[in-house]
Amino acid sequence: MSYFNKPISRINNYWPYLIKPFVKQWRKLPLLDRWLLGELIPPLLFAISAFTVVSLSVGVMFDLVRQIVESGLPFNIAIQVFLLRIPGFLVLSFPMAMLMATLLAYSRLSSNSELKALRSLGVSTKRMIAPAMALALLITSITFIFNNSIVPISNRNSEYILQNSLGKAISNQIGEDIIFSRKGRIDGLKDEKKRKSLTHLFYAGKIDKNKISKLTLLDFSKKGYTQMIVANKALWNESKGIWDFIDGMMLTLSPTGNTTTTKFQSYSYPLGTGPIKIGSIPKDANDMTVSEALKAEQLYLKSGNIKEARRMRVRIQEKFTLPMACIVFGLIGSTLGAKPSTTTSRSQGFGVSVFLILIYYVLSFSFSSLGVSGALTPFFAAWTPVFLSLAGGAFLLKKAS
């Protein structure tokens, strides 16, 4: 018994020193802020729990139960996958919880005439919602850290564990249906016309580390000639820096219209490592950090895939706008709740929160699609819903004042 109690007693000894700085900073806050934060934090924790449980049930739990029953997924693996998916859903829950918590807390204070008492003492609405905005700023920072540092790792690990357990070959460098293009100078053109244009167009059925399966390559690098190479597989030769195409066929179309067909068992080709890099990019931008997304954008630009590069630029901006939703919802929820004579029950607060969240995310998805299609710049596609919502929150604040 003494063996097990020893570490606990050490923690108990250090505990006052761990929390002492936080208690000291907390006591420095004005009494009004401490009181309002005390009213905000319990409903915030409740809302984070509620939204996370609901979204996990719909997004993960039902699928894992189906995998256990139909595919024989071990229960302990399902628990691991479930725990690793929690950060991804926490990130989605933080903004929604911020809206519900501020709406419920300020609505309850308003219905109890406590906000009316504060107004009679000369406390403005802006001052009353200041603790909510400070809390929203803190949750915004936590959301960004989770979304950029924790969620990509946990999502990739959960997918790796799940696929490995189901017996599917998977690695961190695997991609399917990869299209790669390369631009360069075309041989045979006059010097003044030697500008960069499309020289290679490449398709791979699957890329797994240094191996390509089912590839097709179109070569336009020589003026007037079109060469098509089809091979069952290709292996990356690290020492020579070339690809060894295995078991394939080469078709050459000359400027005069003649065609030459050659079958080969092995054929070396200098294509570079571009296909490997493109194949290693995760399909979902949520599985990338900001720095990884920036690298992916550069790879797409180098390969000439402008649409994917534009989509990646939109996703990079959304890495910042997703956390900003906490401030947007904190402003809207607190100003709606702080309106005089506002009474909202917990169920009504949940309903209003879901309605406002639906409007915001429909707006976000619509503008995001416009950004990916090129109708809007990535910056405006990602930030316009935030600016519009902040303007709406400012209008509500003016009305509540």
From TrEMBL:
What InterPro entries does this protein's entry cite?
A: LptG/LptF_permease
Q: Name one GO cellular component term.
A: ATP-binding cassette (ABC) transporter complex
Q: Where in the cell is it found?
A: Cell membrane
Which topology term describes how it sits in the membrane?
A: Multi-pass membrane protein
Superkingdom of the organism of origin: Bacteria
The biological processes this protein is annotated with in GO are: lipopolysaccharide transport
Give the stretches traversing the membrane: 35-62, 82-107, 128-146, 320-338, 350-370, 376-397
Keywords, A to Z, come to: Cell membrane, Membrane, Transmembrane, Transmembrane helix
Q: Is this entry keyworded rRNA processing? A: no
Family annotation (Pfam families)? LptF_LptG
Q: Does the keyword Membrane apply?
A: yes
Name of the protein this chain belongs to? Predicted permease
